[in-house]
Amino acid sequence: MEYASQLNNQLQNTIALLSGYWPEFIIVIGLVVTLIIDLIFFNKEKNSNWWIGFVNLVFLILAFTKQVDVYSYFSNLGEFMKLVLLFAGVLFIVFSLTQTHQTKKAGEYYIIFNGLLIGALLIAKSTNLLVIYLGIEMMSISAYVLSAFSFNKNSAEASLKYLLFGAVSSAFMLFGMSLLYGFTQTLNINDFELLHTVKVIGDLPIKLAVFMTMFGFLFKIAATPMHIWSPDVYEATPTFVVAAFSVIPKLAVFVLLFNIADKFLVFPEVELLLQFTAILSLTIGNFAALWQKNAKRMLAYSSIAHTGFLLIAFFANMQSFVFYGLVYLIMNFAVFGLVKVVEQKFSITDIEQYIGLGKKIPLIGVLFVVALISLTGLPPTAGFTAKILVFSGIWEKYLTNHNPVYLSLFVFGLFNTVVSLFYYLKIPYFMFIKKSNEVILNEHKSSTVLTYLIGSLVFVLILCFFLPNSLMDMIYSINFAQ
Amino acid sequence: MNQEVTILTLTSSTQLSLVVLFLPLLSFVIMNLWSKNRKLGSYVSSGLFFVNFIIAVFLFITIWNGEPEHSRWLWFEIGSGIQFTSGVWLNNLTVLLLVLVTLVSFMVHLFSLEYMKDDKAYNRYFSFLGLFTFSMLGIVLSDNLLLMFVFWELVGFSSYLLIGFWFHKETAAKASKKAFIVNRIGDLGFLVGLMILWSNYNTLDLTTLISSAEITDPSLTLATLCLFGGVIGKSAQFPLQVWLPDAMEGPTPVSALIHAATMVAAGVFLLARITPFIPIDALHVIALIGAITAFMGGVAALRQFDIKKILAFSTISQLGYMVMGVGASAYDAAIFHLITHAFFKACLFLSAGAIIHSLHKFSHDNDANFDAQDIRLMGGLRRSMPFTFWVFIVSSMALVGVPLFSGFLSKEAILIASLSMTKGWQVIVPILGFGSVLITAFYVMRMLLIIFFGENRLSNIINTSYPSFSKVSLLMKIPLTLLAFSSLFILFSPNPFDGSHSWIINGLSNQLPIEHHSVVPAISVMLVLLGMGLAYAKFKPSSKYIQQIHSEPDYKNLWQSLSFNNWHLDAIYDAVIIRQAIRIADGIKMIEEKLINRFINYFAIFNVILAKILGLFDRYIVDGLVHFSAFASNTIGWLSKNIQSGKAQTHIAWAGLGILMIIIWLIL
């Protein structure tokens, strides 16, 4: 009898805990419903299925509101970032909805995106190696498919490259994970006693295992040396998908890094690896971006560089990371949205073709300037505030531990901010300053709703510079002690 | 010095009054958003104003002669403890003005539906009306002087928009600028007054000021006179009355709104609000200014030929009466006159608008180019526009102050009050007051005779048969009828000869009602009869003057010129202020050109030389560094770019190499 009641208690506990998974449940339900609707009602050849996206949006918003409840209950970093991820998901679908006539195979498009989102949410929450692996794979596989959604040769090629590269890094990661399981006899990272096992096996094998696992993570955040896939993929993938790629998996894996930091970063080498990666990503991302002629490719490198900044923020403190992550989300969606608008209006993505566009579409031009200034990190935009927080955080860290690596993170960060100015301002330079020889471009209609959406995002960027308090209050509501 | 500010919570009445305040703003927003559908938008906004009027009436019934209601909340805080409040204060005075403003605004809306029908910027017009009414209601509801000042400025701004509504006309653009600038001069006084009050009492809240101000304090005299400066600007008192005649460039319904019930009334309203703490010396100055204005305005109205100009100068004159009333410690009588004047003057303006509208349409339809506002070209309109004629007569009689009409009651109350000032120089106040009665009767009679009686003189100028004007439409008739009805005595007092027991005066004053004189009405009625008689003698249809009037020049002698040009005030200001200011500006410009520019030139040459030297340094040393860093950046970038060759296998190989290197580093 006693056993039965104990079991009952356990079950009750489990069910109570399950309520924290409502957002994920809702998305799964949404996925299934969308799938069924798509199968029953839609002809594969027809493209304009706006309301299937709308159904999906309703589910996502539902999940978002549920997540607000969950967050108010747990209020830790993971739950907060899930909120952010869901927000990014909503943004993505709203953006896509403005383009329904162009979205091919809309049913699959939204379904696969939901898969990606579920993967991200799982990663942000879990500390179990198996779930992490499943989450990462779910995210990756969805991403491979999504990157082929332009349905042209380039897109297919990029997707294949992505798949191959992802498979290799997955293999590394899985190998590392299985070694870890072998050493520690558990899949739950919280139960790891890595330092304890060092005595038994020696530290090299364990460090190797941790490193290999880390490579899988680095692949998802596109950090050097696992960044090589991103420019090709970014260039050929539909622009909104790129916006989602550059934000959702990245932020999710960063939360994972925070969750496992106290177990994995006990080895100074692992910390050094991440710091080294930060510096490399910054430098390579920024310098390679200088050479790019294609706007999307340039933004791919810029996003590699931003991974470096996020890593610096990771080492500075959680608050500055959350702030930077949020601002990064907003400005990335804004910039990719703008690239999409121009792409749609004039079917161009090369920066040199942007010549003289500032006079033709002044509103877009101004939005571009503000968003890019924010990406560079200059006032009066939230990008500046975010960078200030990161740099002051890392400087304080340096003052307390006097570790020269922190100083070099600081110096490289500042230096790279200057470098980034050159390529970001290339777009405004072409749009506004350079004299054009009156190249006649065919102008198509583009969605005004999209422009207004981007306009409001840009407005938020400026607002967060002048009134960062509300955002900061939100961030300080997170219980960082966990 | 910090006093704790008491917060007073919202009551249902004050909440309702906020609704009244914001509905016109809503109309402003709607008319801006809904700019495509002309008709629907304007009807919606007129509907909003009707609802607003109804709510105002409801508030009036709840508050009038009941408990005043006051809500106040913290507005903002400077530093620690310096708190500014804002709030709503509803008492008899507030609700009375609330009803007046909403009613006249609604009437003007109705009238404008027809009057502005063909205007291109129809929607802009209605949206500005909304903004204007919003600002005016803000003045009425505010419970403190700072908030009132904010709305005061908003009124100034929105009147600028309305007067310059036809901004493509140069005269209109100039008139709106003039009104704006002249008002700013007065507002400077207002602002200084606010500062003095704040530094002495640490509050601008009206109720607190009334209870705490020491009436013997000499700085209070200064402060209230400064506030009166604002009134001089807004209510067009001497010497700042010059903006009001020019402001007639706005559409005629706007003139009715601005110059009858709202903007110019704001000054008198402010005086009524602060009257409990105006020291007696200041009151005397106020009375004197009011009397002078009443007289000057009346004289200037004598020799005008533009129908709207006549009404404008008569407005100035009547405003002088009101201010004089406040100065003679009878703010209740002043407000009474404000109310009656609002109705009959709005009615006069709107019927003048109807005349102009018809004549303008006629000139447009017949391709005849003549000035639709020139009374020399009117005459005999009694037959062609009978409705307008009767309405005009009723409201004119109210303006003159003939018994049985509302103006008589309120004007008597002011004149009786003015009799309290008989010591020394003060006697000039009642003398000017009574003199203006005569003048008013004269110019009103002149206007009536020239416009409505005799033969139509249009045929003297252009070759057309006797014009048959278009009928006044129903939308115009409704407001005209209502306003004309309100110009009768019955609405205000049961006794047509005694205004001192009118319910308005009883409701406003907490002192003993003004003693009823029988001498004053008798004198003023005699003056009225005298003035009208003189006018009839000169302007009767058969007189020689009228026979020749169509070729009458603007003025023929010095006195006529003085009246026509409004005492030459514009010319005096031009000579004394504007030209001097321009001379000073020229002098400063000279100094700038001769002295500062030369210095700057030399400095610039020096700079160029310095820059050359720095340039050399820059080119060889700094640029060298930059070129080197650019070269280095490019090289690094080229290297990292070339890792990407586009082949998947190489990608993976490079990544693998990276991983391998890191692992090797780890092992070593």
The DSSP helix count of chain A reads 22
Net shape of chain B: globular
How far apart lie the N and C ends of chain A? 36 Å
Distance between the termini of chain B: 75 Å
- Give the chain pair forming the largest contact, with residue counts: A-B, 29 and 23 residues
- Whole-angstrom Rg of chain B: 33 Å
Uncertain runs of chain B are none
Beta-strand content of chain B: under 5%
Structurally, the number of domains of chain A stands at 2
Q: How would the global form of chain A be characterised? A: globular
Strand % of chain A is under 5%
Q: Average pLDDT across residues of chain A?
A: 86
Q: pLDDT under 50 segments of chain A (min length 5)?
A: none
List keywords for this structure.
heterodimer; A: 22 helices; B: 668 residues; mainly alpha; two-stranded antiparallel sheet; 26 helices; 72% helix
Structural summary, described in words:
By secondary structure, chain A is mainly α. Helices cover 79% and strands 0% of the residues of chain A. Chain A has helices at 2-18, 22-41, 50-74, 77-97, 106-125, 129-146, 153-184, 194-201, 203-220, 230-236, 239-245, 248-264, 268-290, 295-316, 318-346, 357-360, 362-376, 382-401, 404-424, 426-433, 448-466, 469-476. The mean pLDDT of chain A is 86. Chain B has helices spanning 12-33, 38-63, 92-115, 122-141, 145-163, 170-201, 206-212, 218-234, 243-246, 252-261, 263-274, 280-301, 307-327, 331-365, 381-384, 386-400, 406-418, 428-452, 458-461, 474-485, 503-508, 519-539, 544-548, 558-564, 569-643, 648-667, and strands at 69-78, 82-90. Chain B is globular. Chain B starts with 11 loop residues before the first helix and ends with a helix. Classes of the chains: A mainly alpha (482), B mainly alpha (668). The interface between A and B is medium-sized, with 29 and 23 residues.
State the gist of this model:
Chain A is mostly helical and 482 residues long. Chain A contains 22 helices and no strands.
